Request: fold
Amino acid sequence: MGLLDIFSRKRGGPLAKHAGRVANKRAQANDRWDSIVALAEMGTEEAVSALMVRFTYRIDPSITDQEEKDAVFQGVVAAGEAAVAPSLQALRAHKAIAWPLKCLKAVSGGGAVVDALLDLLSDMDVEYERDPEKKIQTLLTLEEWPDGRVMDAVSRFLDDVSEPARFHTVCTLLSQEKGGTTPADSVHELLLSQFVKEESGRVRARILDAFQEREWAIDEESVDAVRENLPTGYLIDRQRKVRCR
Reply:
């Protein structure tokens, strides 16, 4: 159920009035603030959904923008269990996921955040899209959450059309390995295979840096293919390990 569906049932009531103010970036700041406070005091799922809309735009000055968003966050957190469903809904509906995730973590804990991110990622694909920013945000955020399920969920994005998506998939796999939730051998194999076919210099360099940091050796059967694609400044030593020149 969308916000318009929720509010149309109570057209003209306090909820609709305050929701309209909070959603309107051109409303008077004092009026919008009063409506944020009023919705926070209601504490219902509908009120929280209305509050979450404030995360979708920015206003000037930036200090006012931050104060309003902080107040919305506090109102969402105060709603407790009633904020869970609106946070999940906002995570799917909003282009930016940082605030909905922050709210979800505050009311449900880290486990719910990982569940939500993996669910979000499951509906994304590796084909061309005009704006892959939400996918990139999701992959980037998963770098911060070690979980044994992440490797299987993100590996397919090594074949993504978007170079930033591939780059952050590599970073996420490495962070999972570093966090101890993903076997080093599995990440080693995936990234070595990716390096050989990867076209982006930035992605290749990130993989080589990881091999150097971890003292990972290049498999003997792959070393020639890796040497053929080495960017300037890297070499493979006699132990088939990556070094900087």
Remarks:
- The beta strands are 234-236, 242-244.
- Residues 30 and 232 are 57 Å apart (CA to CA).
- The first strand starts at residue 234 and ends at 236.
- Residues 3-10 have pLDDT under 50 and may be disordered.
